[in-house]
Design brief:
flat, single chain, mainly alpha
């Protein structure tokens, strides 16, 4: 997932600059697990983020007039 990769990149950059971790885990998935969320909960969170991203993309296409139903 793009968000997980972006969080990993952000974690890397912050660690190189501050020598301190931004989140508890290196990726968003690992961070959520270390905060106490189970695997099913993490998968549910990623599924909700995916549906929200798809809805935003469809709304953008409709708004821009490039999506015809």
């Amino acid at each position: 997932m793009v968000v997980d990769g972006a969080c990993g990149l952000l974690q890397y950059i912050v660690f190189k600059i501050r020598k301190k971790l931004l989140m508890k885990g290196y990726t968003l998935h690992e961070h959520l697990q270390k905060k106490g969320h189970g695997d099913h909960s993490v998968i549910g969170i990623f599924a909700v983020m995916s549906v929200a991203g798809a809805a935003a993309a469809i709304a953008f296409l409709i708004y821009s007039g490039k999506f015809f139903i």
